[in-house]
Amino acid sequence: MARGAPSPADQQVVRELAGRAVVVTASQLESWRRAGLLPRHQRQGLGRGRGSRVEAVDPVVVDSAAALARHLRQGRDRRLAVLEWFAEAGMPQQPGAAVVPEPPLGAVREALLWVVRGSVSQQLLEASRGAAGAGEEAQDALYADAARMLAAQPYRGAAHPELVRTALVAGENLPQGPDLIGMVHLVAAIGLGPQEVGVDALAEAFAAVGLYGLSAEDWAQALGAAERGEGPALQWDLLDVEADGLEQVRRASDQELVRARTALIGLRGFYTMYMLHGIFMPDTPGLAALRARIDERSLGPYLDHVISVNPTPRQFAEGLVACLGPILDDLYEALLQQLEADPNLFRLPGDETAAIGFMETWIHTLREQTTATEEMSDDMQEPLWQR
Fold first, then answer.
1. pTM as predicted
2. What is the spatial distance between Cα 15 and Cα 154, in angstroms, rounded to a whole number?
3. Domain spans of the chain?
4. pLDDT in tens, 239-250
5. Helix 199-208 vs helix 216-227: angle between axes, to the nearest 10 degrees?
6. DSSP 3-state helix, strand, coil percentages of the chain (rounded to 5)?
7. Where are the alpha helices (DSSP H) in 20-160?
């Protein structure tokens, strides 16, 4: 074989991919291999002094190359493609579909670290650490920068689905979700220390993000008691570690990365069912029990902030980092146990048609509510639930 010419094995990979309508060149395969994204073909020794040869093309090489070809395109950063590949590999596969092998987990970790470094939450955390002990001007600049970065985020969270449902039935404006500007105070407290932020600001921050479902007044009392030594002290050093996405990714094992992906993908489905209650999805004992598991932990606002139903690679990465911690992992386990206890989520009591009757009831309710909403507000251009 001439030097620089594609190997027979790579030529075979190119032919097999062409049979799947996937266009890949041998030079691309070698480029991906040098980047650590594609395994090399298994070789077998021919005996002492006789070298080695490729006995057969490894299907993992073919399937990995197909995955890369799906997610890579001209001008796109390879790290984004790796994250999409990792997400795809964790999704349930349809019967008869091609196997999606795992990408190299070292490349996944590198991609996660790259995304986290550029995330708003990490930038805020590092800015708050840098402002510690730097004087009032640095602290004022921290608050201004944090407010600016949060204001640039298009997403502000949604209200509790029960409140949304009630508002739609009454024909009222949809309630606003939690004001995530409270995160400014929380991040400042992690970096500067709680004493620099103050009890009142911290209470508003914890209430704004829905922590444990307590009001700002409840938090003010609890934090005041801790400050006076009349209650348990807050472990800010542990909170600092948990808030540091870079540190979480660095210390996570390969198995923990895969587990976080499992939790994230699973929570996406549970979150969807939780929020669809707000737009008249029929209620069943199973669905109500799942919502209760989320609400008893007051994690609805947190899920709303972390979970994206159709995430970009960056959103997937940030959600996966959130699932490295125990809070969402424990919630996922609790929801799985509840689902096992009552798997009939889409069966209305007394209706033997199961999912068919469930969907027919939902469609009928949506049509009725559309008509009712239009009658209540003649100048409304579209029903509230469609906004």
1. 0.80
2. 45
3. 119-163+173-243, 247-376
4. 555 678 899 999
5. 140
6. 65, 0, 35
7. 26-34, 59-71, 78-89, 105-118, 120-131, 136-151
